[in-house]
Prior knowledge:
By secondary structure, the chain is mainly α. It has helices at about 1-25, 75-95, 105-120, 120-125, 130-145, 155-160, 165-180, 190, 210-215, 215-225, 230-235, 240, 245-255, 255-260, and strands spanning about 35, 50-55, 55-60, 65, 70. The strands form two sheets. The protein has a three-stranded mixed sheet. A two-stranded antiparallel ribbon has the order 4-5. A hairpin with a 2-residue loop joins strand 4 (about 65) and strand 5.
Amino acid sequence: MYVQQMFEKDINTAVLQLNRWFNGNLLLLNLEKTYFLRFLTKNTNATDLHVSYVNKQISSVHSTKFLGLVNDNLSWHCHIDQTIPKLKKASYIIRSLKPLLSFESLKMVYFSTVHSIISYGIIFWDISTHSKIIFKIQKRIIRIITNSDNKASCRHLFKKLNVLMLQSQYIFSLLMFVVKNKDVFKTILDVHSFNTRSNHDLHIPVANLTVFQKGVWYSGIKIYNDLPPTLKQQSYNIFKFKRPENDFFLQILFTHWRNIIAGNKDLGS
């Protein structure tokens, strides 16, 4: 009980400081549209929290939308459920345009609609098992563009279009996050001075919670460290790292995405 009381006091203090910051920057905190979302593990018992400001209660919600991402205790089911209708609409558009457009034009429509939806925030929500539905819709759209049978294997179709399947796009987006923000990550050499072959790999933090191990920070570091040395060297130049003609990189994403996610280091190094 004492811990909860201190926790509530800290939260209310944070709300007070937040409102002071808003006032100091000529902004207004709209308490009518202010909520708080609790992140709980499966083994954590939910307790009532009372958060308020100037005698006005701030409500708790089970999910909230921030920058286009719907978060529901990190399960991402709500976000995926809201993404599905958008992809189905894009699928209908592509199917309708197929008799009128060339193959290359359809690819452009794919990247301007489907790809933009799938790639947005994928480093967060693709860890959900619910994302399998998104992959099924992506395969359906790929079959429409290539005029393939509904039961045809999509592996060679993705290669034909030079489009990354959902899991490969997740890996690529994670790697881009790490490469773009390498200055905020510690290397093994930063942590200890022992001379090892992996000195320039990124340091993996200690993590006991599965939810953290599946998260962006931990997964991004592990996947980056498992890349072949040649690709790691290219990561110091982001444009060289992600250039379209980097066939070796694309080949890894197409054929070894399962090994990458599982942490298998045998990736052609």
